[in-house]
Amino acid sequence: MNCEKCQDLISDLVDGSISHQDKTTLSSHLEECLHCAEVRDDLQSIVGFCRTQQGQYAAPPNEKALWLRIRNMIEAGASAAAPAPAASPRSFLNNWTARSWELSFPQLAAMAAAIVLIVSLSTAVGLRRWQSGAVDPKFQSSQNSLSVGAVDVRNRISQQQQLISYWNQRVEYNKARWNPQMRETFDRNLAVIDQAVNDSFDSLSKNPHDEVSEEMLNTALNEKLSLLKEFAEL
Amino acid sequence: MTGILPTLTETSRITLFRKPALFAFVLVFTALSVSSVLAQQHLSRRYPVRSNVRVELKNISGTITVESWNRDEVKLSATMESPAANVSPRQTGDGLIVDVMADNRGRSDIGDVNFKLQVPVNSSVDLETKRGQITVSNIRGGLVRAHVSSEGDIELNGISASQVFAQNLIGNIFFDGAFSRGGTYQFQSGKGEITIRIPSDSAFSLVAATPTKRIALGPFWNDGLKSLGDGRKYVGDVGDGRSSVLVTTFQGSITFLRK
Amino acid sequence: MTAAETETQPETDYALAQRSAQGDMAAFEQLYQRHNRRVYSLCLRMTSNVSEAEDLAQEVFIQLFRKIGSFRGESAFTTWLHRLTVNQVLMHFRKRGVKMEQTTDDGETPIQIVKGTENPNSMPVVDRIALDKAIAQLPPGYRTVFTLHDIEGHEHEEIARMLGCSVGTSKSQLHKARMKLRGLLRQQKVKD
Fold this sequence. Notes:
The structure holds three protein chains of three kinds. By secondary structure, chain A is mostly helical. Chain A has helices at 3-15, 20-32, 34-53, 63-79, 92-98, 105-126, 137-144, 151-175, 180-206, 211-232. Chain A has two domains: 3-53, no CATH class; 63-232, no CATH class. Helix content of chain A is 74%, strand content 0%. Chain A is elongated, with a radius of gyration of 28 Å. The two termini of chain A are 47 Å apart. Chain B is mainly β. Helices cover 14% and strands 46% of the residues of chain B. Chain B has helices spanning 8-18, 20-39, 100-103, and strands at residues 41-48, 54-61, 64-69, 73-80, 90-91, 95-99, 113-120, 124-131, 134-137, 143-148, 154-159, 163-167, 173-177, 184-189, 194-198, 204-209, 215-216, 226-228, 233-238, 243-249, 254-258. In chain B, strand 5 and strand 6 form a beta hairpin. Chain B starts with 7 loop residues before the first helix and ends with a strand. By secondary structure, chain C is mainly alpha-helical. Chain C has two domains: 9-95, Orthogonal Bundle (Rna Polymerase Sigma Factor, Chain: A); 101-192, Arc Repressor Mutant, subunit A (Orthogonal Bundle). Helix content of chain C is 67%, strand content 0%. Chain C is elongated and about 55 Å long. The A-B interface holds A 174, 177-179, 181-182, 185-186, 188-189, 192-193, 195-196, 199-200, 203, 210-213, 215-216, 219-220, 223, 226-227, 230-231, 233-234 and B 60-61, 101, 108-109, 130-131, 149-151, 169-170, 188, 190-191, 209, 211, 228-229, 232-233, 248, 250-251.
């Protein structure tokens, strides 16, 4: 028996699924060939260790947050079939929800995306304990200066901000492992998008009915969330 | 001019011979450059593909350059800076996937990977990187998507795909090409100038927004376009509005040029 | 059995599954609490990526809620959930275009240890961190078969059914995965 044939059979030997005849031939080869014997010992050591790992489980980074996301997603899925309640047409979002729908495939896809967003936002409500720390003080002060007419915008943004805080935590957790250039890049880009968020918010606080600023703010917040999510996986 | 000022070669020669310290510096610098080149690893592979192949590339950091050629083949070249990333391209039913992210799970120490791809002219290309410039030239397939999560310019030249998406955070976006009927074109930057160069007879439905109010529609301006928010946003049709164009930048200008 | 003992007896998975099928979220939350670590760990072992594993675990529980009415208690709930999880991860791999059968022609560079250059010492003592690090570097196809067989304890026949390949392919993939892992662990030892 040559080494190549021998090594093909070693896994069977380790698993105990080798035929009697092969085992005899293999054993005599292993007695003579130190290299193949070493392969057998190594594989036995790997497989043996893995068997000791069976039944040992790691917890997700945040079991509670994961459960909230799952529950919200299930509930959103259940309510997706229900007709959307008519809302007073005050802003572009309300106009959007007040329209009647005959859904094409792309529209259905868009609706699915919207459900994901709603779920994300409502998950954020459950994650209030992460709220502190990540909100720009300037942002908070602008928020406080918003008029009563923009309450729903403020709530929506506050929820989005909590979601951002969650992903920010994930980034901070991984950031120490990045190389210095990657850290600098991230910080520089986060500063740019924070600037866009703050500018839009300032503008919206001066004129709460400014739809362009509202749109820009939404886009900027989504962009920030996307930046955090993409760097969280590094 | 040559009579008054020394040429670059003359300047170099004078400097090198008159200043030994600088000469030594140049030697050390050259040695370092050579060692850094030696630390790089190269990969070059060719894949026979169909003419409308879909190529997906997910990089972490580094440049991506895509060019077309008249062959039903993809040539992928990559230069890996040290510590070298694993790059394991995979051929699937309808295309080629290169996922540096997935190939290096669990590693946080990898260097830049600079890619150059040559693809059939009718390919679709879907390119992503966390950081780095993306350049795509002469593609006429279904999709050109260039997404830089953070900073890096995006340059799209000679593109006539029916769907184009270009997005970055810090960096300019340049598009030179044509819009197809029914196509979708989206350009979004956080802090960067967006320039779109298209034929004068282009027809599209436009939404362009920037808080800086620097929106120059040039020859594509018409009375049917509506200005919103004091010139921060323009909405309306150019021609018969046969394709959809969405342009947004938070800190930068939007410029339309005629080819 | 006293009344008090009866009251403290935990509900079976089957009973909780039946209540969940009626839309009882409290029952479903209990199932989540019992099994989320098992599901997440399997996703993590198969993907070697924390955020991907978390997203997949989320998707598994959403699918579980949708399908829980079809659980008839014929097999153990854990076995049923395990199969659901594996299928979900495999579907995710397929969407990403991950090739499950790994060959040396698709860009995968095999670890080759030339005789005489390898570490003369025997295999370094395998520990959890070293193994996790090495598993993370396996190509997804190898990682899947290795996880399912050597960590989760599935037989090749089951793996072949799940992956839609032959038993022979599953066996040869496992052997290649182990050999690659051996090389990676030795490399780590040399680096250390």
